């Protein structure tokens, strides 16, 4: 089948960025005379690709305005200076946790930059994400508090639903300006995912010289990055560039397909592969063919919306029409089993139920039969206020 998707509605500035990020570019097809260079810079920041974009421009024969080049260089240098202390903090946290027998898998940050790009300065990162066993969360928090970190976000919970509805908690160091995300799941629930023990047995050691930091195995990393990018609508091009880099590696695609089939949805893997191919020129290999389905192509076409609109899902409030589109798209990413689990999760009490009708902890089990009533009450009250 034809795997080309429609990208005509993407602005020329973003198309130029995509062309620059390809391994083999064809700049003669691009009209740079009408380029909005302010938008070009804005897009490079929004999509978090300015470090590798600057590196690609240095190696190409494309001429851009000198002030634009200087601005990109300044962004690149700022990122380099930011990644160095982040790397040192990662090494320190890894060593500290290892000394207290807390197994730690770093997910993104400096380890991902060096693993995929071969250079810490070529990928942006604002924090450190790492995964630990859920039963060691309290111990990890005590260690971070002793280092001066403060818990930066809190969430309400009822009947321990935090264990599967959420997947990480954030800590911030007010003096260092460092942010850490401790994960006990790779993704928010509900849904199946590999146990920490499985991931630990397939782990690798970071490629950063003299580093002993543990990272996900190659196939696990690909599945994690795809699921993460898809969950955010591929609204940042940086995530697709990561996929482009991984598609050039020698992955065991049969194993990758098995992981998607067991824990996610193979169509989501196909969505990422098709997007990376169409936008960034990533090449298909024979092992990727099972992913290239009609449903995968449709999901890839739906994701173009996020690039057209320059969608930002990380800053509240998200515009209502975008939030609605995103909710619908997230549901379309799910397998049939995931959709059933997702819908069934609405039967489990929510923190809002406890806020509507506070009950002693010993009576929280009553929220199960009361949930339809409490939900209807809140909806009626909201409509009355409106």
From TrEMBL:
Pfam families registered for this protein in UniProt: NTP_transf_5 (PF14907)
Family annotation (InterPro entries): NTP_transf_5
Q: Which Gene3D superfamilies match?
A: 3.30.460.40
Instruction: Identify this protein by name.
Output: Nucleotidyltransferase family protein
Q: Which organism is it from?
A: Halalkalibacter alkalisediminis
């Amino acid at each position: 089948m034809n795997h080309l998707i429609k990208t005509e509605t993407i602005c020329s500035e973003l198309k130029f960025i995509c062309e620059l990020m390809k391994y083999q570019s064809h700049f003669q097809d691009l009209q740079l005379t009408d380029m909005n260079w302010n938008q070009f810079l804005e897009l490079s920041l929004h999509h978090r690709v300015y470090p590798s974009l600057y590196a690609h421009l240095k190696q190409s024969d494309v001429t851009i305005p000198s002030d634009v080049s200087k601005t990109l260089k300044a962004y690149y240098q700022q990122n380099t200076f930011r990644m160095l202390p982040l790397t040192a903090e990662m090494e320190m946290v890894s060593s500290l946790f290892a000394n207290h027998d807390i197994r730690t898998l770093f997910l993104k940050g400096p380890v991902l930059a060096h693993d995929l790009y071969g250079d810490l300065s070529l990928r942006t990162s604002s924090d450190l994400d790492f995964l630990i066993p859920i039963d060691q969360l309290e111990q990890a928090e005590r260690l971070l508090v002793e280092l001066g970190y403060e818990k930066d976000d809190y969430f309400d919970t009822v009947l321990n639903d935090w264990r599967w509805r959420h997947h990480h908690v954030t800590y911030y160091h007010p003096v260092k300006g460092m942010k850490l995300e401790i994960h006990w799941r790779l993704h928010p629930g509900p849904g199946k995912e590999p146990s920490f023990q499985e991931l630990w047995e397939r782990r690798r050691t970071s490629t950063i010289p003299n580093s002993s930091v543990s990272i996900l195995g190659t196939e696990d990393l690909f599945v994690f990055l795809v699921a993460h990018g898809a969950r955010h609508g591929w609204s940042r091009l940086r995530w697709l560039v990561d996929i482009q880099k991984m598609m050039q590696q020698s992955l065991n695609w049969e194993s990758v397909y098995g992981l998607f089939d067991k824990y996610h949805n193979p169509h989501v893997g196909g969505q990422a592969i098709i997007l990376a191919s169409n936008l960034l020129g990533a090449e298909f290999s024979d092992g990727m063919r099972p992913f290239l389905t009609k449903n995968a192509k449709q999901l890839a076409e739906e994701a173009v919306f996020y690039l057209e609109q320059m969608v930002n899902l990380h800053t509240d409030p998200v515009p209502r029409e975008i939030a609605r589109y995103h909710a619908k798209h997230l549901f379309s990413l799910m397998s049939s089993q995931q959709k059933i689990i997702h819908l069934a999760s609405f039967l489990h009490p929510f923190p809002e139920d406890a806020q509507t009708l506070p009950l002693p902890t010993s009576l929280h089990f009553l929220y199960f039969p009361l949930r339809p009533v409490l939900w209807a009450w809140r909806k009626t009250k909201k409509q009355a206020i409106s």
